[in-house]
Amino acid sequence: MANRLAHETSPYLLQHADNPVDWWPWSDEAFEEARRRGVPVLLSVGYSSCHWCHVMAHESFEDEDTAAYLNEHFVNVKVDREERPDVDAVYMEAVQAATGQGGWPMTVFLTPDAEPFYFGTYFPPAPRHGMPSFLQVLEGVRAAWADRREEVGEVAGNIVRELSGRSLAFGGAGAPGEQELAQALLALTRDYDALHAGFGGAPKFPPSMVIEFLLRHHARTGAEGALQMAADTCEAMARGGIYDQLGGGFARYSVDREWVVPHFEKMLYDNALLCRVYAHLWRATGSDLARRVALETADFMVRELRTAEGGFASALDADSDDGSGKHVEGAYYVWTPEQLREVLGEEDAAYAARHFGVTEEGTFEEGASVLQLPDGAGAGVPPTPEAVGDGAERVERIRRRLFEARDRRPRPGRDDKIVAAWNGLAIAALAETGAFFDRPDLVERATEAADLLVRLHMDSTARLARTSRDGKVGVNAGVLEDYGDVAEGFLALAAVTGEGVWLEFAGFLLDIVLDRFTGEGGALYDTAHDAEQLIRRPQDPTDNAVPSGWTAAAGALLSYAAHTGSEAHRTAAEGALGVVKALGPRAPRFIGWGLAVAEALLDGPREVAVVGAGAEPAGPGAEAARALHRAALLGTAPGAVVAYGRPGAADEFPLLRDRPLIDGQPAAYVCRHFVCDAPTTDAADLSRKLTN
Length: 692
Description:
The chain is α+β, with helices and mostly antiparallel strands and 692 residues long. It folds into four domains: 4-164, Glutaredoxin (3-Layer(aba) Sandwich), CATH 3.40.30.10; 192-318 and 415-603, Glycosyltransferase (Alpha/alpha barrel), CATH 1.50.10.10; 333-408, no CATH class; 607-689. The protein is built from 25 helices and 19 strands. Strand 16, helix 24 (620-633) and strand 17 (641-645) form a beta-alpha-beta unit. Helix 11 packs parallel to helix 16, helix 18 packs antiparallel against helix 19 (501-517) and helix 24 (620-633) packs parallel to helix 25 (683-689). It is globular.
């Protein structure tokens, strides 16, 4: 039957629109229906590229008998966690508190007052490995609701009171200093996988925000160990199966500690963050591998995720048709030796198998291998694409032929909703990558995405909508990460383009953060004070797959303060960083972006004003201005902000006020708190000022 989800814009909800389950979207009407019927609510939370969400849907939600039971005894609510991160966060906190773990699909049973009383994630259709079947769970919950209603209500009330009592107020701790950042580095060193790089064991996630901290820490202190961990981790990921060796871009995580076999879904946020990380690694080291990966990842985002409206879609599924009509995880990406021979012929197939680690036994499932670039020491592995000469040319020819052959396979599904926060991350990555590597097309794609966010996601008061799809804005309000990450993207775009309007738009968003998301003592909340009231106002400062709203906002507030001299924004940033002082030394892997922002605070951050833009484009003055601008962007000073424009263009960039040309020549001023060193007209001198 077609249910209420058929009218939604979320691709995940639309995947369930034809289920026999009588689904409701999250709404007051759903809970009113539960009160009217006197039944509990089944809350099912997932997202479109979630493999186990698809599995549970096929096993249970598409099953007529299971659906009939659900429809008779529950009001069933389906939520896309990417559209409603606030709902997801509140109930995931309850799941983790009750079970010690979490994940998706998330399955929570609620009273008609939205109070949780029983929790889980994936449930199989039959008992398995000590887990009850989904139907057994449903029967148990129904029986408890019918026979022990008072007990259920007491449990739910206790859970809500416990959650409501949790509040974070680290503002009084003050911003972290040298000691806390040194302790964070030491903790990361202890957790570092010296054999395979990265941090922790399996599953292993790309630590993009931690790498940003390590690069900034090295830039500020010269700590070689920090740079080495960052560089080695980036190389291990780029050589591993987590990186798409043919088409660029990264999968969500590696199921093993060696980076060989990924969970194949590709998320916009991972690729935006990692594109920027590799661009910054190249900036610090000149690594050819980092340059290639940054550009390939940027090209992947534009090729595979860009929408007709100019924004960027959320994700590609892990699963795709294996050619037989069956959806299989990784089918689009893996290869057997026979498949290589079919495309390349015997000689090139043997060469490709050695180069990409394709074996007869396989590294994945059923004899298939995930392409990687194994360490060639003593293994006769051909040169990487960074090498020169005939070997590198042959590798590129093979990659191109395999890519073209793969492109004819059934493609993974795409979640084409546009999430504001993740597009903000993509804008920052594409703008900087385009500027670093002289790719104006990437800067243009970043600008188009920013235009879309302003045109479609921002209302007349600069309030953000969380999502849009097919040019239609969604109904869900933006959360703190949307404001922080979009502001971050706008600030990066302002630095690259010299267009002050992006600084202005960032200011609009950050004023809303100050007005509607900030609590006492520097604490921040994930939702605005006038947002829908849930059983608790979500508040999570820890960085997970993306920067938390808390740390994203702190970084953008600090950068905006450096641009404008606003004490209110700087004070808010410093207050928010109190959480980094509390968590950084003992849990640095989970506050990486916060640590990176703290590095910027300790460094100033430095403010770079480059005056001279607007001269005759072909003249020597314009060339000198562009050279200074490029040197400013390539400076490694942590979190440095860059203003580029005409002399006296303070209406666009306050940093340009009272910054004249020097003897008629373009000049750069390096400042802290608007107090500047002697200006320079020499790009090499500017580079030196920004690298130590």
